[in-house]
Amino acid sequence: MFVKLKQVRAYFSNATILENYSKLKPSAFIIPIVFLAALVLFLYSQNALSVEQYPLIQKNYFLSINAALSQYPNLILNITQIGDTLVLLSLFSIALYYTPKIWESFISATIVAAIFSRGLKSFFSIPRPLQVYDVDSFVIIGRRMPGFSSFPSGHTITTFSILIVLLFSFMPKKYLSKALWCIGILALGYMIAFTRVGVGAHHPLDVISGSAIGYLSALIGIFITRKYNIWAWVGNQKYYPFFMVLFVVSAGVMLFKIYTENLIVYYLTLVVLFFSLYKMYHVYFKK
């Protein structure tokens, strides 16, 4: 039992991450680029490369997905919050203690994802479902999202930028394990992504395109981490007080969210933050 635990710890380590990063080739960018190109060609074939037509060709799909998922409002509302940047990074806060190398990629990928998200939203300015469809024809769960652009889904970009970093950081060596790992990560990503349709905040193609953009952001983040050491300081224990303050602030935000929304996902996030704080506090002041 003890030997197996040591093997697990050895696998989920900085050494494993660095080894996997070294195997990653620029050809990995082909997948998200081809995916996005196929999406553009599809929209072109449907004469939907316009602000007016883009939502209309998805109306039936949007209504069907929204109707199916909105039957589980509490579950959908909890899952969709995982795509929030603060929540998702907080859930992986403990990785800063055990595998700081992955956090270097998280930081780079998140910055790239934010640039893509804000830039593309501003450029395309696609109206959200609430601005296009009859409000009585679909279900809105949680707060209404009438503002800013619908395309692409920021929650989805964030989700995939973090999950794809995770995917490549701990990619198994055996083919079967590798296939199951990839399927599991992608399934989790799309489960979170499509809740954005379930809550009535996004069109289906918003989240589909967001997954590819998040994938692209993750790869860029990994290659930045591999080539440059700009975030190497995050693994240095002398900077733990900075992250402890950051985690305390994040915990405060989660407490406020619990007070206003009272979702289970916030309680889980709070537990992870407190555990991360405990580990970092113990290590920092022990020395």
TrEMBL record:
Pfam families in UniProt: PAP2
Keyword terms: Membrane, Transmembrane, Transmembrane helix
Classification via SUPFAM superfamilies: Acid phosphatase/Vanadium-dependent haloperoxidase
Keyword match tRNA processing: no
Keyword DNA repair attributed: no
InterPro entries with a match to the protein in the record: PAP2/HPO, PAP2/HPO_sf
Segments crossing the lipid bilayer: 28-45, 75-99, 147-168, 180-201, 207-226, 238-258, 264-281
Entry superkingdom: Bacteria
Phosphatidic acid phosphatase type 2/haloperoxidase domain boundaries: 106-222
Protein name: Phosphatase PAP2 family protein
Source species of the chain: Flavobacterium capsici
